Amino acid sequence: MSYEPPTPPADLATEVVNALNESTPDHLREVATYAEVLAEHKEREACLEESADQEEVEERPDDLPDDVPAKATITIKDINGNRYYYWQWRDGEKVKSKYKGPVNSDG
C-alpha cells in the first residue's frame, strides 16, 4: 500500500474532493456504502424509465424506415422553394434527419 494519498477522479467536483479529504475513515466508508446504494438505485430508475419509454412507442408507423427510431417525428423543410418531409429525432446532443418525401401540394 502506498503512503501517497490517492488521486481523485478528474471530473469529481473540488467541493466533493475537499469534503472527502476532511472526513474520517469511518465517515468515508459510510459515504462509499451510500454511493454504491445510490448508484444502484439510479441505474434501476433509468432502466424503469427506459422500459416505460419503449412501451409508449411500441407501435411504429407503417412507413417508418428500419433505421429511424420510433420516437422520430415528421418535419417539413423548405429547400429552394420546395417542401419536403423528413423524419427527425434526437440522438444524444444531435438532431438527426432522414428524407421521407416531397410534400404534395394537391392534398
Automatic annotation (TrEMBL):
InterPro entries: DUF6788
Skewed-composition ranges (Acidic residues): 48-66
Record region (Disordered): 48-69
All copies of domain DUF6788, residue ranges: 56-104
Any Pfam family hit: DUF6788
Organism superkingdom: Archaea
Protein name (Swiss-Prot/TrEMBL): DUF6788 domain-containing protein
Organism: Halorubrum alkaliphilum
